[in-house]
Amino acid sequence: MSVGNSEVTTHPFLKALYEDDYYPDRVLDRGRQILLRLCARIEAEHPADLAALYRLTQAATEEFNDLQTAFEEAGSEIETVAREAIAEEFWFVARAYGFADADVEELIATRDW
Question: CA quadruple 109, 62, 6, 12: dihedral positive or negative?
Answer without folding.
Answer: positive
